[in-house]
């Protein structure tokens, strides 16, 4: 099955986050997968580049669970209810 969400770091081995986003967005079978860039890279140009390439949202590290939940809700993904 295809994941609903991928958390993508800008700095990854083999390919960087931007290359990963572009590769995923070229494959139709992944068109519904949400991509959230989570990184410590703070340059606005990188954020814009990632979003232009097909990332759905961008979240700066370190981040809180509340910030992550907010981004997931913005992306249309519901936060799981806790019992």
Description:
Helices cover 35% and strands 17% of the residues. The chain is of the alpha/beta class. The chain has a single domain, classed as Rossmann fold. The chain has a 3-stranded parallel beta sheet with strand order 1-2-3, with helices on both faces. The longest helix is centred in the middle third of the chain and has 10 residues, at 44-53. The mean pLDDT is 90.
Which characteristics define this entry?
83 residues; alpha/beta; Rossmann fold; 3 helices; 35% helix; globular
Secondary structure: helix percent: 25-40%
Main sheet: strand order? 1-2-3
* Span of the ends, CA to CA: 27 Å
* Rg result: 13 Å
Indicate the mean pLDDT.
Answer: 90
Summary?
This protein has 83 residues and is α/β, with parallel strands linked by helices. It has 3 helices and 3 strands, in the order βαβαβα.
Summarize the helices and strands and which ones pair or pack:
Layout lengths: L4 E4 L8 H9 L8 E6 L4 H10 L3 E4 L4 H10 L9
Parallel strand pairs: 1-2, 2-3
């Amino acid at each position: 099955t295809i994941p609903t969400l991928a958390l993508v770091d800008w700095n990854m081995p083999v390919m960087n986050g931007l290359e990963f986003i572009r590769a995923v967005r070229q494959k139709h079978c992944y068109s519904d997968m949400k991509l959230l860039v989570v990184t410590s890279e703070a340059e606005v140009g990188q954020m814009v580049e990632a979003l232009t390439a097909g990332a759905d949202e961008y979240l700066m590290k370190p981040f809180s669970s509340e910030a992550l939940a907010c981004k997931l809700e913005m992306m249309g993904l519901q936060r799981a209810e806790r019992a």
